[in-house]
Specification:
heterodimer; A: alpha+beta; seven-stranded mixed β-sheet; 28 strands; 35% helix; globular; B: alpha/beta; nine-stranded mixed β-sheet
Chain lengths: 730, 227
């Protein structure tokens, strides 16, 4: 095949990028080489539009063992234990083939984690779908949920938390972000940096097939009318093989045979071999005839670009081949010595005794394109003027019922009941709470994790939205009694070539960075997914944050369910009644404009830290952060979970009742405390200059808002739990 | 008391079972599916998971593993064998228990707490158990127990039904049937009552911080019975 500019363009490369390749190589690449360049230089693998901005994120901290740049981030949780974690997108494949796309997303992220020597101990996911009225939404939801469950359940890793949102901006591009946490001993972490010359390069796992060829390139482009034709670029998952691969790798890792290890994820053998060589500043030579293939007559081009799942590349110590092979034989997995490390600093590929590729590693990595793309700054929208007459026609209880059954607030039990969330016997907080919590096996420690996004806020004002989402993650961890440690992010955006979309990205990242820096909540891993766009319509900017926190003694964990009648309820943080961009404004008033709530980082930090103090002094019986739907929605969920009621005090605020109840001011929590502790608690709050209000008390059966507004908990449960089940069974 | 837990390729509740058995006093050994001999055991457990990826039919390939010959002999000699979830499916496929396990009624994986009513206490597994209903956890895609009418009559006549899905009060009805099992069957014995298969996972309910503690009730009673 003749390689020319047109062929390069067909591979998703730009004209000038093709010219750069020819200049770097000082010749025209052959077809295999062109394929390798296109795989390494696409947006998904090279981060060419995002690198320039990502480098400003705070990535360091006293608990950080490994920040971005490895397969996953690693944090210290004391006693020589470390948590390896990362979130990753699988948006494009999931839109084309929901089941396999979602399943292989889960498989891929688990591989990233166990590649580093950690046994996965928890999975989470954040999934976004189009409007519930869109004709495809139901099928997407069902397929994605089955896919996530199909893979995670088979692996025997509990899915402990998640987030599901519906918004019409995802009609043409759904989002599937999967996150995994793994546990490892600090001195047994494995990295992808190859060292030493003449070391054997080993291929293990499944055979290489023709599936997923150019998957990473597909994920680096917008969708058009021919999307169905892209089905062959979606990988097919086999969780059974991955379970065997996990056990075999961990068995080999218990010894000292491995120098470097890298999973074959996006761009398969290409990116894994190049990454190992690049990090070690050496070369790798591979004989492609040695690669175990599923199909006959696969070409070097296909072998290098296949994204078949459940494969790993390992650089072994010399002389350990037999020992390693024995382990992989035991687990019935393919094992092949396919090459060696060299001093050439090149990727050299041989096939049928002919050299089929010869590329200096630095041309693929350091010299890959990086763009400082044009972007547009977003203005803070003007505050909307809500006509208060509108309020007079609204009845609080019917508004509340409507909000509790809103697709973005309602119970997601239909989803998480399909995920095994208790396998491994350490899940102490199941899905449905503020964060999922698992014990560190055999210890008193527990790790809390949550995933969050607030695309509506980010869309209204990216800078505030970026900050808000980090704060929400922080609050979710605080609410279960965990000290927030670090985050991973999955940045889902439209096309970076569009100035507005790029602006959304830049400012969300800026906001995210400001908040995580202020809260000392560093970003240790992440992933960028651009081109979530069909024709000219992009998604709302959707940064997803996965937060991790530590609970030193799991007995101090807090849940949101109300515990005891007559206990006192406090709202921590100031209520101003901010309705712009609130669920109330959008869903009840059909008002989509206005600025998102303001973020005050000082208050966020101070409020959160003070709550942790109260939790550690065992004053807090239940806690929940106030987010979507305001105070009354948060309180209703606490009532529903605890099957108890609450009686509200009349508020002292000079704002309208609906603003008070449904406003989405940030930095707030509801806590439940025992009456006798009220004095001690309030004095701690005052000492720490934390604003609080008395919200009311816990009662038996009803939510009583005022003389005219009362509803039974059973009715609230009905509103909250039936929508999704009914929707999916229709 | 010595116990053995068999690990098949794809088993994923083997460690949890090991932890549970040890917690309640068993000396447990892990046994590899490719081994020929079982170690000396007072109890053999086939754990949950997705042996061989549930490919072909759940449990069918595992039922042909090398170790299964030894398991069959152990059963013939009256040895106690317990299969949980996928282990139950393997026992059925191996012919040690009657019937089959079909896909759940609503074709979806179910992970939640359920109550089961203990139907037969005249055996080593449930003799003297203090509770009549247990709150246990299920996590399966193929847990809908089914068998022919003749078989169900035989199972009934021999008092082989171990557990029914029920509510907390022990009421057995369609409302309390999570997966469409015939007669709400959650667990059954062989004729001799030395082999037990059940879908719920007692090993996930052994600590107050977890989903509950009725698993502890089950295991404490079990080891006392076997002593």
């Amino acid at each position: 095949m003749i390689v020319n500019e047109q062929l390069a363009i067909d591979h998703g490369l730009k004209k000038e990028e093709y010219k750069k390749i020819c200049d770097l190589l000082k010749r025209v690449p052959n077809i295999t080489e062109l394929g390798i360049f296109s795989a390494m230089w696409n947006e998904h693998c090279s981060y060419k539009s995002s690198r320039f901005h990502l480098k400003n994120l705070p990535t360091k901290g006293k608990s950080v063992i490994q920040g971005p740049g490895e397969n996953a981030g690693v944090i210290d949780i004391g006693d020589d234990d470390a948590i390896v974690f990362k979130i990753e997108s699988h948006n494009h494949p999931s839109f084309i083939e929901p089941y396999q796309g979602a399943a292989t997303g889960v498989g891929g992220i688990m591989r990233d984690v166990f590649t580093m020597g950690a046994r996965p101990i928890a999975n989470l996911n954040s999934i976004h779908f189009g409007s519930s009225h869109h004709k495809k939404t139901k099928n997407f939801l069902r397929g994605v949920v089955h896919g996530i469950g199909g893979y995670g359940n088979c692996m025997g890793v509990p899915t402990i938390a998640g987030q599901t949102s519906f918004d019409e901006s995802y009609n043409g591009n759904i989002l599937v972000n999967a996150m995994t946490l793994g546990l490892v001993k600090k001195d047994k972490i494995f990295y992808s940096k190859a060292t030493g010359l003449g070391k054997p390069v080993i291929y293990v796992g499944s055979k290489t097939g023709r599936d997923g060829i150019h998957g990473a390139s597909m994920a680096s482009a917008s969708f058009d009318d021919k999307i169905e034709e892209k089905k062959p670029t979606v990988q097919v998952g086999d969780p059974f093989t991955e379970k065997l691969l996990l056990e075999a790798c961990l068995e080999l890792m218990a010894g000292d045979s491995i120098i470097a290890i890298q999973d074959m994820g996006a761009a398969g053998l290409t990116s894994s071999s190049i990454e190992m060589a690049s990090k070690g500043n050496l070369g790798i030579e591979i004989n492609l005839n040695m690669v175990p293939c599923r199909e006959a007559n696969m070409t070097p081009y296909e072998i290098m670009l296949s994204e078949s799942q459940e494969r790993m590349l390992i650089v072994l110590e010399n002389g350990k081949e037999e020992l390693a092979k024995k382990i992989f034989d035991k687990w019935n997995l393919d094992f092949a010595v396919i090459g060696k490390t060299t001093k050439s600093k090149k990727i050299e590929l041989y096939f049928d005794e002919e050299k089929v590729a010869d590329i200096p590693v630095n041309t693929l990595v350091e010299n890959s394109p990086m763009y400082d793309r044009k972007w547009k700054k977003a203005k803070l929208p003007k505050k909307i003027k809500i006509k208060k007459e509108q309020f007079k026609t609204l009845k609080v209880i019917s508004v509340l019922n409507k909000i509790l059954s809103n697709s973005n607030v309602c119970s997601k039990e239909w989803i998480w009941q399909q995920y095994d969330h208790t396998v491994m016997g350490d899940t102490i907080q199941k899905p449905g709470g503020d964060a999922g919590v698992v014990r560190v096996h055999g210890t008193d420690k527990a790790v809390a994790a949550s995933v969050d996004s607030s695309a509506v806020y980010c869309w209204a004002h990216p800078l505030s939205g970026g900050k808000q989402i980090v704060c929400e993650s922080w609050r979710n961890l605080i609410s279960v009694g965990a000290k927030p440690i670090a985050i991973t992010n999955c940045l889902n955006f439209g096309s970076p070539e569009n100035e507005e979309n790029m602006g959304e990205f830049v400012e969300c990242v800026q906001g995210l960075g400001e908040a995580s820096s202020y809260l000392n909540f560093p970003v240790v891993s992440g992933n960028v997914s651009f081109y979530n766009q069909t024709k000219d319509i992009g998604i709302k900017p959707t940064p997803v944050i996965g937060g991790i926190g530590l609970i030193k003694n799991y007995r101090n964990m807090v849940t949101m369910d109300l515990k005891e009648v007559d206990n006192v309820l406090l709202v921590i943080g100031k209520t101003e009644g901010h309705l712009d961009q609130s669920l109330f404004a959008r869903d009840i008033l059909s008002e989509k404009n206005g600025p998102p709530p303001e973020i005050n980082l000082f208050n966020e930090k101070n409020n959160g830290e003070t709550i942790l103090k109260l939790i550690n002094k065992k004053f807090i019986k239940a806690a929940h952060d106030v987010s979507l739907g305001g105070i009354i929605t948060a309180l209703s969920k606490m009532c529903i979970k605890g099957k108890k009621g609450a009686t509200l005090k009349r508020s002292n605020y000079l704002i309208n009742q609906l603003e008070y109840l449904f406003g989405e001011d940030q930095g707030r929590y509801i806590i439940e405390i025992n009456k006798v502790d009220l004095k001690s608690v309030t004095s701690i709050l005052l000492e720490n200059s934390v604003h609080f209000d008395e919200l009311g008390t816990v009662n038996e059966n009803d939510l009583i808002i005022d003389d005219k507004s009362k509803v039974s908990i059973d009715d609230l449960i009905k509103s909250h739990t039936t929508w999704l089940t009914n929707y999916m069974s229709k | 008391m010595n116990s053995s837990v068999i690990t098949f390729p794809g088993s994923n509740c083997d460690r949890d079972m090991d932890v549970a058995l040890k917690k309640f006093g068993f000396k447990n050994k892990m046994v590899w599916h490719d081994d020929l001999e079982l170690p000396k055991s007072d109890l053999v457990v086939l754990p949950g998971g997705f042996s061989y990826g549930d490919y072909l039919r759940c449990g069918s390939m595992a039922s042909k593993s090398k170790i299964m010959k030894s398991v069959l002999n152990f059963a013939k000699g009256g040895g106690k064998i317990m299969g949980i979830c996928n282990g139950f499916q393997i026992l059925v496929e191996a012919g040690l228990l009657p019937g089959v396990l079909l896909r759940n009624k609503y074709l979806e994986f179910i992970c939640k707490n359920v109550f089961v009513k203990v139907n037969n206490k005249d055996n080593s597994y449930f003799k003297n158990i203090k509770k009549d209903t247990l709150e246990l956890h299920i996590a399966h895609n193929e847990g809908s127990y089914f068998c022919s009418e003749e078989q169900i009559k035989e199972i009934n006549d021999n008092n082989q039904i171990a557990l029914f899905y029920s509510n907390e009060a022990g009421i057995v009805n369609e409302k309390n049937n999570p997966n469409g099992s015939i007669k709400n069957i959650a667990g059954i014995f062989n004729k001799e009552k030395n082999v037990l298969g059940m879908m719920p996972h007692p090993e996930r309910m052994i600590h107050p911080a977890l989903s509950g503690e009725d698993g502890s009730v089950f295991f404490e009673n079990l080891i006392n019975n076997l002593r």
